[in-house]
Amino acid sequence: MNYSLNDPFKMDFESLEELAEMISQVLECPVTIEDANHRLLAYSTHDERTDPARIATIIGRRVPEKVINQLWKEGTIPALLSTKEPIRVKNMDEIGLGHRVAVSIWKQEEVLGFIWVIEIDKTLTEEEYSLLKKAAESAKNKLLQLQTRKNKKEERSQEFFWKLLTGHLANHEEITGNFHSLQITPASSYSLLVFQFKHNISGKIEQNISYLLTTNQRFKIMLYTIDSNQLILLVSADNIRHTFEELNYFVRQFVFNMSERYGVNEITPVYSSIYYDYGKIKHAYHESLEVLSIKEKFPEETKDIHTYQKLGIYQFFDILLQKRKSNDFENYSLKLLYQYDQKHNSNLIETLDVFLTKDANINDAAKELNVHANTLNYRLKRIAEIGEVDFKDPNQKISLYIDLKLRKYQNMQHL
Amino acid sequence: MNYSLNDPFKMDFESLEELAEMISQVLECPVTIEDANHRLLAYSTHDERTDPARIATIIGRRVPEKVINQLWKEGTIPALLSTKEPIRVKNMDEIGLGHRVAVSIWKQEEVLGFIWVIEIDKTLTEEEYSLLKKAAESAKNKLLQLQTRKNKKEERSQEFFWKLLTGHLANHEEITGNFHSLQITPASSYSLLVFQFKHNISGKIEQNISYLLTTNQRFKIMLYTIDSNQLILLVSADNIRHTFEELNYFVRQFVFNMSERYGVNEITPVYSSIYYDYGKIKHAYHESLEVLSIKEKFPEETKDIHTYQKLGIYQFFDILLQKRKSNDFENYSLKLLYQYDQKHNSNLIETLDVFLTKDANINDAAKELNVHANTLNYRLKRIAEIGEVDFKDPNQKISLYIDLKLRKYQNMQHL
DNA sequence: ATTTTTTTTGTAAAATTAAACAAAGAAGGT
DNA sequence: ACCTTCTTTGTTTAATTTTACAAAAAAAAT
């Protein structure tokens, strides 16, 4: 390896801070050291020159999300993850980032963290680049220590989380005690999130997940675990105004990033209602699993729904189906329409389905059906006539909708 | 009594036809004899002069419905039911009725039928009036015979009907056999109707019911019976285009007539789906009773609904309630809105209820709430904001609707 | 083969609904 | 008592939806 004799970093440092100061002195630039998830580990203080991005990072003890996003988009982070060479980043005023150079800290094939050098007044030379690489090598051991400490804590938290999920902790004090011993402040309100992946989650993907979760700054994640193809999170809902909207954004963003950054597709995200009692985590978990199961049955209809609260009539599909079956009820209107469709091979049933799915909006439904709005109007008049339906009556509409979807589901089952 | 010696009708007649001919000869006018329900019993044939109403009556073997309605409206029938004196009816061209005189046939305090004398070329004298009264007296016995024969048949049909209603006749041939022995042609499709009265149905009201049912000409009533405060009908649905619409009209008309003609109010009418299998009468009966029970729970919401098929979401209220209870689910949006209402004593919940009940029609809802449409719009924006609701999403709307109605029902229970 | 009925599409006018503002009263907080 | 925010209503304009009518293609009936 390239440990040269004149490696100024080949010594024992008390702490990462000490190393940061040393690098800063050698390169004559401000320095920050982050872990793999862009959380601040250490920064040099002897130099007062800096840029807004660095200030924000130090204040928040983490790199701001928009900076991370920008660095992903423009390729810096992917580059750092694929090479041990220092990477130069151009000035990006829109996010307050001055010129800088970064290098990743490696252990085997894994990135443990990053060292950032802000080029305020100077530009690093080739020689300084190789010094920076040596500094990265030197930081490795300290980061490893941190990681093993973290791993131990993680193991304990995993066990605790599973006890909560399976309802093995009923006592309030016990739950609070556990949180405290893990140095987690339990939020007063929470939501449980489940991301269902298409395949079992590999160690590699687990790292990616961990990265995305830690760099997220919208939600405080209290606990998380992975169960074969599901990622399960316990998330604080405190101090969030439009909780569902925010959760929606968060899960979509997560799914988007997994696809965009790591090429992992087909993740189904789901989140529970807001709860205030940690004894209800089991309930929240089952609620989430129920949503996943319903989404499997009606993927199209529920593709934009991620939580039980917004499932609408689909909350009830199991019992609706059961009742219909036990009553052997037949929707008379649908029967008449079906008979007409058969006889004239028309598609009134499909027309009705789309119309109702589009919430009785003629324009939207016509677009979906690729027909003129007047055509749809004509068909609806025929449907009203033939099926003895009154579209002014919301009760008739909901019955038809339910029975159409039940029929669709049952037809699927028969295949 | 006024049996005079020169009563030409004081003899034994072979049949009512013979009596009709005799009256016709004596009064020199065409004569028809009807039972209490305006069904044709006999008519004179020796005279060819007549009017359109009489022709229609003879052809259809009953007085046309519109003629009956007109005679009620204009007071002839009420008069005939209250006096034993002959009543003169003026020409009514719009229903094809020429001048005529009618007298009712009495047994004690009950009207058994009517004799109609058409005054084609002449006008009856006072003397002829009293002859007519004698003729009515003479017709009494023949009508009584008919009635007892009918009663026997009715008794048998009642027993048969109850066997069907309680599902004690499973065998098809057996059912068909019973119909034939009662000289009823079973229709290939039928509906079961139940009219629920506020009080038990007295003998007097039973007669009124019988009258209304027999004079109706929209639906062929195969069987009917009375069970304390319920009138139950088995009605043919054959050859009717818009079955539900027609049934709706029929039951409303019945309720209207009971109120208008006999002052009997608060009748709740209900009818079953259309069935083709007489083994399903029990099912149809239970279906009807279920609708009655739901209508009791949600009288306002279901006041214009008379059949299971059109109940919409109310078909499912029992199981929806059950599921909500067993899940101890709380609608988050409603919770937020309720909290807001409490704090600011506003009425967002009520606003939302009316809005959804009016099928998201802003104008209708604003009218119902007695506020300006802009006010409602403003409130809806607030509701969307506070309750985190999206009114573009039909699933969210239906959830809210269901939970509002469930809440309403439960609040009622707690009183 | 031809007549009738059903279905689709287009255009334009009428009607309804939604959005944008402004004004003013009511309610809440300091 | 004063200021701010919330709520209601009115007016106007813009946008959208509904309706009416006509033409023509397609399907069904005779």
UniProtKB/TrEMBL annotation, chains A, B:
Keyword Nucleus found: no
Coiled-coil residue spans: 122-156
Domain of life: Bacteria
Residue span(s) of domain CdaR GGDEF-like: 172-294
Record-linked Gene3D superfamilies: 3.30.450.40, PucR C-terminal helix-turn-helix domain
Pfam families per UniProt: GGDEF_2, HTH_30
Family label: Belongs to the CdaR family.
Protein name listed in UniProt: PucR family transcriptional regulator
